[in-house]
Design goal:
This protein is α/β, with parallel strands linked by helices. The chain is built from twelve helices and 14 strands. The chain has a single domain, classed as Ribokinase (UDP-N-acetylmuramoyl-L-alanine:D-glutamate ligase, 3-Layer(aba) Sandwich), CATH 3.40.1190.20. The two termini are 22 Å apart.
């Protein structure tokens, strides 16, 4: 395999609702709220499900890589329940090899309820379920050793079992990549993330806010200096300013695609990473890899959801 992803296995459950549904359930439009199992059941009790998608940040990237005809796999923790079965089927349909044997667990499969109101805004309720309880016994070492790159998401990292799962996977990887996922994640795990970036990872994906927070920088020049001193490949998306890759003294920039009809920003970073990794594993230059990442993220933000097809 070219890339093996390890991340939160979350089923995206897509439903159409009216605005008063959000008000009735005390939900703030266009935000993401973490909910517990009881809240999740209460909200979904009388909803009609439009569609389910095998989601999660790294899983979205892995599916993007598969759609570009790369051999890929994924490890994520699911329960042997209805949503767990849907998750596995969804990945298989996308030609992603799934390296996890589901078991009967007390905790359900992780789910993200995506509520779409008539104005196309998305309001999300995420119940992490069993996804966040990944441990070292869930890591398939053989699958990792057969992959060129192991790709992690910051969302999954946590003290305890997930940390041990990360360590085991990193130790057995040929090459490692990670997305910092979210500024909230970075702020919460700053010292650990910095340690991973400096000592364990070969490729780092971040947006500007995440990397500024990671190194407590005031200016982007400080980020460039940090990137140069790392001697690793750090890839940063900067919104309107495009993207930049720093590898030692090599600095490569790429602009954005203009005049896009932006519909939904979901999956932009995930698909950017997919495009960039596609370039990397197919021996394209760093500039061409940035271009492919930009092309993929530009396509995804012009449609609803995190799937190109």
């Amino acid at each position: 395999m070219k890339v093996l992803g390890i991340g939160n296995a979350i089923v995206d459950v897509i439903c159409k609702v009216e605005d008063n549904f959000l008000i009735k359930n005390k939900l703030t439009k266009s935000t993401m709220k973490l909910v517990d199992e009881n809240e999740f059941k209460a909200i979904t009790s009388n909803l009609k499900i439009e569609n389910t998608v095998s989601g999660g940040s790294v899983a979205n990237s892995i599916v993007g890589l598969s759609q570009l005809n790369n051999e890929v796999g994924f490890i994520g923790k699911i329960n042997n329940d209805e949503f767990g079965n849907k998750y596995e089927e969804g990945l298989k349909k996308e030609k992603v090899k799934f390296f996890y044997s589901k078991k009967n667990e007390e905790t359900p499969t992780g789910t993200c309820l995506i509520l779409i109101t008539p104005d196309s805004e998305r309001t999300m309720c995420t119940f992490l379920g069993i996804a966040g309880k990944i441990n070292e016994t869930d890591i398939d070492i053989e699958a990792i050793r057969k992959s060129e790159i192991t790709f992690f998401e910051g969302y999954l990292w946590d003290e305890g079992h997930p940390k041990k799962a990360f360590e085991k996977a990193i130790k057995n990887s040929k090459k490692t990549a990670m997305s910092l996922s979210d500024k909230f994640c970075v702020d919460r795990h700053k010292q650990n993330f910095l340690d991973l970036v400096k000592n364990s990872l070969d490729i780092i994906f971040a947006n500007e806010q995440e990397v500024l927070s990671l190194i407590n920088a005031k200016t982007f020049d400080e980020v460039i200096s940090f990137g140069k001193s790392l001697k690793k490949l750090i890839v940063i998306t900067r919104g309107e300013k495009g993207s930049i890759a720093v590898k030692g003294d090599e600095i490569v920039q790429f602009g954005i695609q203009k005049n896009l009809k932006i519909v939904d920003l979901t999956g932009a970073g995930d698909l950017f990473a997919a495009g960039f990794l596609h370039g990397l594993i197919n021996n394209l230059s760093i500039k061409e890899s940035l271009q492919k990442g930009t092309e993929m993220s530009s396509k995804i933000i012009q449609k609803i959801g995190a799937r190109l097809s």
